Amino acid sequence: MDIGLAVGRGTGAELAAVFERTLTRLGHLYSTRFTITRSPRVYHSYFSLLAERGAERIRQRTQQDAEHYERFCRAQAALGVPAIFRTAMNAQSLYLVRQRMQAVKVDLVRSRTGTLLLIRDEAQGFYTGENTHSPDAVTRTMTFSKEITEKVIAFALRRARRQWPDGGADQILMAYKFHLLDGALGDWVRDIAARHGVDIGLFQPDTVNRNLIEHGLAPRTVIIGGNEWADVMHPVLLDRFASDRQENRFTENVHLHPDVDRLTEYQTVHGSADDLAGKDLVNPVATVRAAAAIAERHAGCAGAEQAMERALDALKAQGVHTRDLGGRHSTTEVVGALLDALDRETALDRETTGHASDQAAPTLVAD
Q1: Residue 256 — φ and ψ, nearest 5°?
Q2: Alpha-carbon dihedral of residues 143, 146, 148, 151, nearest 10 degrees?
Q3: 3-state secondary structure 308-345
Q4: Is 198 strand, coil or helix?
Q5: Of 3.40.718.10, 1.20.1310.10, 3.40.30.10, 3.40.50.300, which CATH number belongs to 103-256?
Q6: How is residue 365 annotated by DSSP?
Q7: Are strands 171-175 and 220-226 parallel, antiparallel or unpaired?
Q8: Could you give the CA distance from residue 10 to residue 335 in angstroms, rounded to a whole number?
Q9: Res 356: pLDDT
Q10: Ranges for all domains in the chain classified under CATH 3.40.718.10
Q11: C-alpha pair distances (Å), 97 with each of 16, 83, 162, 301
């Protein structure tokens, strides 16, 4: 199984090592041979770009990173690679790629009363577009289109049916600043919803927020969010409905452009954490969860995600954490203890279900 790897600055190198180490162990435990192809470029973080000094220099580096990463993604997709793990990189470069490859971000937020399938529209809107500089001003030009809106809605409906095959979602909402678009977005959504035979509620972001505060989540809720809303609200939704933090989460970005055939990119939700670079202090939880998800969803390692969660629970019981979670352990110590716990959990799986095996060792290849 071939998997791509893209590494940004800041703590990217440390998290890439965590990902490789974890996927290696998962491959060994589940008899799956992984080949990891690493992008040869180390991509800028926002803070590493600031050292370039000057808007024009930063613009050039941003474009170069975007063009290189887009080529890497397209090359991996052409080879049939189903997934890429990427550490944090400069958002401006990243959104140029997401616009060109028509990306959506997927996260599942579970509460005691309901489940939220959050689909973030990364392919259009303010986060995408191009900048034009003039003395003391930056003009940003961006686009909304019916074509992209329909692709995003169609993906959300497919994903909802996959999540709830016995009946789909109870409600489908869209959170966009549609009042700024001359009524066009509302017309598109009504037409698209009618053709798909579903009810979609298009609301201003503050209305969605107010209703969530007042009523909470329906048992099965889909929210399609413009990035202008979803990026800001994501940590709030995690805190309010899942009692979770960004530092522990990964998400998947699915690319809808036909040239990349739904190539899926996994990323940690937290940023590059440049201030922690080289200190062996970065929280590895989101990265190891992403490795388990890739192993199970793309390489057939059934039970890998549950085994990882049980291993993380074992560490929690032992008080093994990095400092951001109130612990005193280094990244290396946490990962070492986690993989030992993972060995025990998969051994238990073998005893009870016959899943997992340790017959084959994986191969890691960097180019």
Answers
A1: -100, -5
A2: 170
A3: HHHHHHHHHHHCCCCHHHCCCCCHHHHHHHHHHHHHHH
A4: coil
A5: 3.40.718.10
A6: -
A7: parallel
A8: 19
A9: 52
A10: 103-256
A11: 21, 16, 27, 30
Q: Which of 205, 174, 168 is nearest to 190 (CA)?
A: 174
Compute the distance between CA of residue 248 and CA of residue 283 in angstroms, rounded to an integer.
8
- 313: its two tokens: 């629970």
Q: Which residue has the tokens 């893209």?
A: 6
> What mean pLDDT value characterizes the chain?
92
In angstroms, how far is the first alpha carbon of the chain from the final one?
Answer: 16
In order of 40, 233, 263, 304, the CA distances from 80 in angstroms are: 19, 34, 9, 22
pLDDT in tens, 81-124: 999 999 999 999 999 999 999 999 999 999 888 999 999 999 99
Name the token pair of 78.
Answer: 């052409």
pLDDT digit string (tens) for 147-186?
A: 999 999 999 999 999 999 998 899 999 999 999 999 999 9
The pLDDT confidence band at residue 246, using thresholds 50, 70 and 90, is confident
Tell me what pLDDT residue 99 has. 96
Three-class SS state of 144: coil
Residue of 156, 91, 175 whose CA lies nearest to 129: 91
Regarding pTM above 0.85, the answer is: yes
CB 48 within 8 A of CB 10: yes
3-state secondary structure (DSSP) of residue 120: strand
With beta carbons less than 8 A apart as the criterion, state whether 295 and 30 touch. Answer: yes
